[in-house]
Amino acid sequence: MAYVAVSGGKEAIEESIKLLDFYKSGTDKDIEIEAIENKLSLLVDRVMSEAGLYSKTYAALAIKQCEGSMEEAVFLLRAYRSTLTRNYYTNVVNTEEMRIVRRISAAFKDIIGGQLLGATYDYTHRLINFDDHPVASRHPSDGEELEEIIPFQRVSDELKKEGLIDSYNINDQRPHDVTVNMLEFPADRSARLQTLSRADTGFISGLAYSSLRGFGQVHPTVGELRCGYVELYVPYQSEDIYIGEILITEVECFNSVDDKDKLKLAVGYGVVFGRNETKAISMAVLDRELDNGGPYPAQNEEFVLTHGDSLEMNGFISHLKLPHYVTFQSKLDAVRKTRGAEHE
Q1: Closest by alpha carbon to 118, among 98, 94, 133?
Q2: What pLDDT band is residue 88 in, cutting at 50, 70 and 90?
Q3: In Å, how far are 70, 162, 175, 200, 212 from 82, measured between CA atoms?
Q4: 3-state secondary structure (DSSP) of residue 158
Q5: b/e string for 37-73 if b means 16 or more Cβ within 10 A?
Q6: I want to staple 254 with a disulfide (CB 3.0 to 4.6 A). Which of 175, 223, 232, 341 is the partner?
Q7: Do 254 and 261 meet the contact criterion of CB atoms below 8 Å apart?
Q8: Helix or strand or coil: residue 205?
Q9: Does residue 186 have a cis bond before it (omega within 30 degrees)?
């Protein structure tokens, strides 16, 4: 798509960038990257998720560079991600071996291993605390001995034993990588979940909400929500090499199956980087909606997967600010000719 140059050209653009730096300066006080990384961790986690790159430090740097603009931060982090060389693929992560920091179920009061509330705003007063000065504390993994990983089986495992869960067939087929291969429709489930995990949180939350309000299937139940650290390994020759751990949020939602002959439950699945429970739950809701299909927007695979990408969505809307002199004049001329013909 070509555009006529902005009036003023290079000089005007350089002055615009200088003015942007002026707005970003604001005060002599600077914000340290470490402060953003730790004090705005939920924002950092969201940027990492939508950018598809797990790096808290770089996400914090992107947030600082663009004055806290979500879409601009995602753009910066994805642009950086595109320059990186991909040397290895990690082994498939078994989230049953997650080092749990939060684990709840809305389906059962008592679950094997117990529920762990962890850190959440679910039980706080939704009021501004003007004296909010939290005591500084170190991250559990910063120089401290980590707790032993205790495997927690999934809540859905017990239901599977009873034959009450309509589970997916898992095979050894390599997952579709949407960052390397073009997304095609119909998309397989791995491509669908990857795309949803990188989608704009607000967009997929709104679609999930539309489903809950009746523009889709019935109300799902969060069978299990767990947040914790999973270890990553890459295969090298005859052994697996540990390369670190990442924090993720994982959700399984239970739904009834739209088939009277199958008295079972179906599972919707969602997993995202960091602590982002709203997005993970929304993913799980949309996973089932897309699997079912139907007449509503949340059930239309092309609509959901194509329009939820924060980078493309915001980029295309922002392009409307660029010069469209020629195309608009064409529209204007067409209107004038039509009006002239009507008055003849």
Answers
A1: 98
A2: confident
A3: 18, 46, 20, 19, 36
A4: helix
A5: bbebbebbbbbbbbbbbbbbebbbbbbbebeeebbbb
A6: 223
A7: no
A8: helix
A9: yes
Closest CA to 275 of 48, 33, 8: 48
- Bridge pairing between strands 165-166 and 221-236: unpaired
162 vs 55: CA distance, rounded Å: 41
d(CA 97, CA 151): 5
Largest CA distance in the chain: 87
Q: Which of the four pLDDT bands, split at 50, 70 and 90, describes residue 131?
A: confident
Question: Rounded CA gap, 203 and 286, in Å?
Answer: 11
Q: What is the sign, positive or negative, of the torsion defined by CA atoms of 327, 330, 334, 339?
A: positive
Which own/partner pairs from 89-96 qualify as long-range (CB within 8 Å, at least 24 positions apart)? 89/234, 90/232, 90/233, 90/234, 90/243, 91/232, 91/233, 91/234, 91/235, 91/240, 93/230, 93/231, 93/232, 94/230, 95/226, 95/230, 95/248, 95/250, 95/271, 96/151, 96/152, 96/153, 96/154
Query: What is the C-alpha R_g of the chain?
Result: 24
What type of residue is 254?
Answer: F
Residue written as token pair 């401290």: 144
| 39-72 tens-digit pLDDT | 999 999 999 999 999 999 999 999 999 888 888 8
Which DSSP letter does residue 142 get? S
pLDDT in tens, 108-124: 888 888 898 988 888 88
User: Can you point out the beta strands (E) in the chain?
Assistant: 99-104, 165-166, 221-236, 239-256, 265-273
Spatial distance between the Cα atoms of 50 and 198, rounded to a whole number of angstroms? 4
Packing angle, helices 277-292 and 201-212, rounded to 10: 60
Task: Identify the band that residue 153 occupies on the pLDDT scale cut at 50, 70 and 90.
Answer: confident
The conformational region for residue 67 under phi > 0 = left, psi -120 to 50 = alpha, else beta, is: left
Which amino acid is it at 261? D
CA angle centred on 66, ends 60 and 70, rounded to 5°: 70
Query: Do residues 258 and 218 touch, judged by C-beta distance below 8 A?
Result: no
pLDDT at 203 over 80: yes
